[in-house]
Amino acid sequence: MKATTADQVANVWEGGTTKPLGASYGKMMMWFFILSDALTFAGFLSAYGLTRFKFIDIWPIADEVFTHFPFIHGTYPMYYVALMTFILIFSSVTMVLAVDAGHQMKRNKVITYMFLTIIGGLIFVGSQAWEWKNFIKGEYGAVQLKDGKIIQFVDKEGKQIALEAFATPDNQLVEHTRNNGLWFSEGKTTYEYTTEGIVEAFKHNPSVGIRLEKINPETKQKIVIQDKAEALKFLEQSSRVVRGANLEVNEYGSSQFADFFFFITGFHGFHVCSGIAINIIIFVNVLLGTYEKRGHYEMVEKVGLYWHFVDLVWVFVFTFFYLV
Amino acid sequence: MAQHESNTTLIWKVFGFLSLVTIVEVILGIIKPHGLHYTNFLGTSLLNWIFIILTLVKAAGIMWYFMHLNHERKNFLNSIVLPLIILIPYLITLLLIEGGYLHDTLAPLVNWKY
């Protein structure tokens, strides 16, 4: 049966009265947006895979990089990201409960569940910011050689130790910031340690060894050199002290590792932020009773799709950055 | 919007399942069972294959139950799922082969002896 012109004009924002695949216009477009966004993330993660395969013998081991847990000292690999994963899955559950309540036109339930979803999203973004902070700040510090290799320091048992554990801060240079120098320019980051000082301390401290980026394929651990003479051959090539991570260099190993970490988790975090913003808009609309007047809660379902997609991407990021 | 009955119990069941899968992943990731971690299969360890399969199971669970693909018409479902399962494995295969080649070509050129 053909719809009248008046019907079509009234429904034009919803894509007219025809429903090609049994789904409304808005929902269908949300799905195709998600499809294209999924392909974008697939592209990023595949590029990450390519780089990782390229540097498979020197790639940092995630367990040794992400070891922090709030309010507890010590190394706890994985627990924190596992918690973040739970928070996001849980906020996905509250979202789907909101959609479910929307189907039954239970406005108060939609309000409660949407609110919980927004809170979950905010906690997740906060957690990610904290994770970034730890990653950027770094924990142990390392030395970079002239050819770009990163050398970390270990104790007798092969456990990684910080620069403070054996070297003394001897750098006289003060970092040039806008406050203490020319107001219109900033200088390079300077560290409390100098490579000369570290090498000197290394020579005089018998219990310190070095660890290379290179992974021993048999043990799947980084190669440790305890022999002083051999280690010094590496350290003689030192060019600078590295602490924490930025887009150019990081203390964990390959600079590409930090680049991909910042880019992919950053892009995902950006999606979470926009998801929260959209959720808040819809939440306000639910509060105002917009969908009650409209007679259906399909908008909640559409933002729900986006929110689940964000969770879906995180499932993959979690696997490929932290587990595999 | 034909479904007006509540699916709450199903949602909680799916949540339980997804949580269980995540817990299994985390436990495996922390203890790294020796037999799985050091056994190679098709280019990576068995443990990694388990992670990848569990991840795909989780993703399917989210799409099927949370994103309500189980309520959509079959041709709509196919228009979304087919591009993903054709294009993504294709891209991954090509890029990983290329990455392996880059490694085989470039890694021997890196000097580890000073």
Fold topology:
The complex is a heterodimer of chains A (324) and B (114).
Chain A: H1 5-10, H2 25-54, H3 62-65, H4 79-103, H5 107-137, E1 142-145, E2 150-154, H6 195-204, E3 209-216, E4 221-225, H7 228-235, E5 238-242, H8 255-288, H9 290-294, H10 298-323
Antiparallel strand pairs in A: 1-2, 1-5, 2-3, 3-4
Helix pairs in contact in A: 2-8, 2-10, 4-5, 4-10, 5-8, 8-10
Chain B: H1 8-31, H2 34-37, E1 40-41, E2 44-45, H3 46-66, H4 74-106
Antiparallel strand pairs in B: 1-2
Helix pairs in contact in B: 1-3
Tell me what the structure shows:
The complex is a heterodimer of chains A (324) and B (114). With 324 residues, chain A is of the alpha+beta class. Chain A has helices at residues 5-10, 25-54, 62-65, 79-103, 107-137, 195-204, 228-235, 255-288, 290-294, 298-323, and strands at 142-145, 150-154, 209-216, 221-225, 238-242. Chain A has 2 domains: 25-138 and 257-323, Four Helix Bundle (Hemerythrin (Met), subunit A) (Up-down Bundle); 142-243, no CATH class. In chain A, strands 4-3-2-1-5 form a 5-stranded antiparallel β-sheet, covered by helices on one side. Chain A is elongated. Chain B has a two-stranded antiparallel ribbon with strand order 1-2. Helices cover 72% and strands 4% of the residues of chain B. Chain B folds into 2 domains: 1-71; 73-114. In chain B, strand 1 and strand 2 (44-45) form a beta hairpin. In chain B, helix 1 runs antiparallel to helix 3. Chain B is mainly alpha-helical and 114 residues long. At the A-B interface, helix 2, helix 4 and helix 10 of A face helix 1, helix 3 and helix 4 of B.
